[in-house]
Amino acid sequence: MDLTQIRYFNAVARHGSFSAAARALGITQPGLTKAVRRLEAGLACNLFARLPRGVALTPQGQALLRHVGLLDVQLRDAREEIRALERGAVGELSIGAGPSWLSRALPRIVAEMAARYPGLSFRVVGGFNVSLMEALRVGELDLVVSALPDRTPPGLRAIPLTRDTISVVARLNHPLRTKRAPPPTATLAYSWVLPGRDVLSRLRLEALFRVAGIEPPTAKIESDSISFIAAVLRDSDMLSFATSQILRNEMVGVAPLPIPGLGMTRSAGILFRASAGITPGAQALMDAARRLAHKLGAN
To answer: In the CATH scheme, what is the code of domain 80-162+267-296?
Structure first.
């Protein structure tokens, strides 16, 4: 199996026919067919099922296509690293950022780097963990700064930088503040506004409820906007779950509730593809993030 065979296979899979793929590649159809058949012979399986018009991937072909996608990402990473080593910190650095980083640390880091590296431009994408890690995995992002999952996903590496606390939050004059250390069950008397079901902080909240032997609350309102959640909390008796850093910087009028068993600490830091070379631009950002994290200390 060589790169030419992989490129030909990818073209047939993308176009759904040998004739269309051959035209796109600028080669003859018999030559393309022969190359794919050699690939199938080397793998001892059929990669395509012949249809009356065109072809469809077999299960083996679908499996190979998934790996081919990752190979494309790795080859692109290799090209970018080689170019970066030749030219220094130039090009575009694509960064995914969780809510805490997006509002506090990352703007300072990127502003510093923009002044220091005039040949480097930046694309910053905000979001929550699951969407950011998927974009990182498929090569849409070069690195992610966010809360770190309990287990680093396969194919990614993590560098912890900071720790902060997560707790139940509500408006300053919420009724639960009149009670001393209310139990977790007391929170179920109120509606909740939470991020999406696959967001890491929500998954951790649900785990805390289950550890306490309580079914987790359902979200009356779901939103991925921190400012929207904060506004809802200020104008109602609803509850949510937030980090200490987000509370300080984006949730004026909202504060943690002392609910025993419904708080935790978490790590935040940098995620990047294990297979990718670290370009000078990415390395510079990692170094700047480490320096700032050391200066900030625990949140």
So the answer is: 3.40.190.10
